Amino acid sequence: MATYAVGDIQGCRASLERLLDKLRFDPTADRIWFVGDLVNRGPDSLGVLRLIRNQLQDRATVVLGNHDIHLMSVWSGHGRLKSSDTLRATLNAADVDELIHWLRHRPVMHLDQDLGYAMVHAGLPPAWSVAEAQLRACELEEALRGGIPFDEFMDKIYGNLPTQWSEDLEGFDRLRFITNAFMRMRFTDPAGQLLLRFKGAPADAPPNHVPWFIARRRLRVSRDPIKLITGHWSRLGLYQDAELLSIDTGCQWGNQLTAVRLDSEEPELCSIDCSTSC
Questions:
Q1: Where do the structural domains in the chain lie, given as residue ranges?
Q2: What is the mean pLDDT of each run of 10 residues along the chain (278 residues)?
Q3: Predicted model pTM
Q4: What CATH number matches the domain at 3-273, 3.40.30.10, 3.40.50.920, 3.60.21.10, 3.40.50.1370?
C-alpha cells in the first residue's frame, strides 16, 4: 500500500489521470492526498471533482484551497466569476449541489502522525504550532459545515484583514484570518503579519517581507516533528527542506503536475508534463 500527495490540479483532469497512470495508483490499496485547489483555471474542474468524489472516494483525502472556496462563494451568490475563471460548467452541472456539499465537508488540515506529515493548502503562520493549527482548522471546518449559516459565512469571509493573529480575535475576524492563513498566505513580515496582495516569487519579495516558512523558522522557539505538505504557490514551485514540502508545480500554466510518495524512507517525487490546456 502506497500513500501519495498531489499538488494543485486546478481543473486539469486529463493531467491527473495521466499522473495516476504513471504512479500505477491502485484504488483498492493505495491512498492519495490532494493539497487543495481542485478547481479553476484548467478546462475540466467538473471532471476533477467527479473523479475524486465518485471514483477515488474514501481513498482520497482533500484539503480545501482558495479556488475551492471561490467556487463555493460563486455558487452561493456572494462571489463573482472573473475573466480567468473556468467554473461555468461546474456551476451549471446537474450535480453541483451535491459537489458543493461534498467540498464543504472536506478538511482544512490533514495530519498523519504515523507518516509524520501534515497537509494544508498554503501554510501555517509562525504563531501556530501544528497542534494549535489543528484547533484553528476545526473552528473553520465547523463553520463551513453549518456551524454558521453558509450564506452568512460566504458573505463575511472575504477580505485581507486582520493580518496578525491574536487569541483575542472573535467572530468573522477570527475566521477570516484562519481562512487566509490556511488558503492564501505566501509572505509575512518578520513578525508574522500576513501580506496577501503580493503573489510573486520569493526572490521578488517586497521589502521587509519573507516567505511564510522563513518567518516561521525564525520565530518558532521549537521545531515541530511533523513535516508540512503545501501547494498554492506555483511561483515557488517544487520546494523541499527539513520542515516543508511544497508541490504546486503549475500544471495549469503548462508546467508540471507533481506527486510525492510519503510512505517511503525518503519522499519519492513523480511528475508529468502538462500542456497549456492541461
A1: 3-273
A2: 97 97 96 98 97 97 98 96 96 98 98 97 95 97 95 94 97 98 97 94 95 92 84 97 96 96 93 84
A3: 0.96
A4: 3.60.21.10
Instruction: Output the DSSP codes for the chain.
Output: --EEEE---TT-HHHHHHHHHHHT--TTT-EEEE-S--SSSSS-HHHHHHIIIIIIGGGEEE---HHHHHHHHHHHTSS---TT---HHHHTSTTHHHHHHHHHTS-S-EEETTTTEEE-SS---TT--HHHHHHHHHHHHHIIIIIS-HHHHHHHS-SS---S--TT--HHHHHHHHHHHHHT--EE-TT--EE-S--S-GGGPPTT-EEHHHHHHHH-SS--SSEEEE---TTT-SEE-SSEEE----GGGTSEEEEEESSSSS-EEEEEE--TT-
